[in-house]
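User: Okay, second chain of the day. Same drill as before: sequence in, structure tokens out.
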Amino acid sequence: MSYQFSIIVSEFNESITSELLNGAIQRLVEKGISSENITVTRVPGAIEIPLIAKLHAKSKKFDAIIALGAVIRGETSHYDYVCEQVSQGCQTVMMEFEIPVVFGVLTTENIQQAKDRIGGKHGHKGKDAADAALAMTEILKKIKC
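Assistant: Same drill. Structure tokens below.
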């Protein structure tokens, strides 16, 4: 496969996001994507993901974008604002540029819930995001032919 993938990963909550990234890359490689066809861009936090997603979509170099991050609820309403802005930003990029932007940003109540989603009892959301990106590239290939 010669698909090009962009993975944008937040450095905030890095112990979680690095595992999401590892899982996504591992799955893409397992499915036949060369590591040379995977571009990883690290951003400080989840809120910065949509801007890079937009720039990557605008470049037309990628077949799909995978957004990875971990937003874990704290004691303030900041969590709600971040989750809403990141999800809306990714959705806007996807619709504006007609490119899959897979939302692999964990939004959990606590660190244990996040850990459960990086290979724990709720599977591996990094791998799931890669699977969704692969599926969407195949769907779009069929539609656009």
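Strands lie at 5-10, 38-43, 64-72, 101-108, 118-120, 123-124.

User: Thanks, on to the next one.
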